[in-house]
Amino acid sequence: MPSENMQGKDAVTPMTVRTWTVIGDAYTSGTKRAAVTRTIEFLEWHTLESTVEREPPFFQAHAVRDAIRQLDLRGVLRVAWSSQPFSNQYPLTDAGEVSTAGIYGVECDYGHRQLRIYLLDRGMFTVVLATDVWATAPRTPTATA
How is the beta sheet containing 102-110 ordered, strand by strand? Predict the structure, then answer.
């Protein structure tokens, strides 16, 4: 991820750093960041093999697939989506705009580290909101759902 696109860092765990993007700032600034963080905490993570058994919702699957392709992510380990509509928690912008939106996640190997990318689906486009980078080598994922 280009450093000029980053908006701040938070320690998520002792081994993980969350970086918020500038491009996603309209959706994560101020009190919105707490709602985004809550939604991220409740994402349902699935290995790619488990998505064959429990197929993701159609639109979420396409948004995640397109983001993986556009961001040229390789070594995808898991994907995540929330069963809770994100936009019901607060307006998406300071102007009070509310629309259907979802937050999704992609976990992959990235330069000998594990990376999670969190995406906001706005219907016609997705926005990278934040990334988590592990300070250690990637681990083998297990499905949580």
Answer: 6-13, 16-21, 126-134, 113-121, 102-110, 76-81, 44-47
Q: State the number of CA atoms in the 13 A half-sphere of 46 facing the CB.
A: 18
- Burial (CB count <10 Å: 0-12, 13-18, 19+), residue 107: buried
Q: Report whether 24 contacts 120 (CB < 8 A).
A: yes
CB-based contact 104:127 (threshold 8 Å) = no
What is the pTM for the complete model shown?
Answer: 0.74
Distances (CA, A) of 21 to 27, 75, 135: 10, 22, 19
Spatial neighbors of 125 by CB under 8 A, at least 6 apart, are none
pLDDT(10) > 70:
no
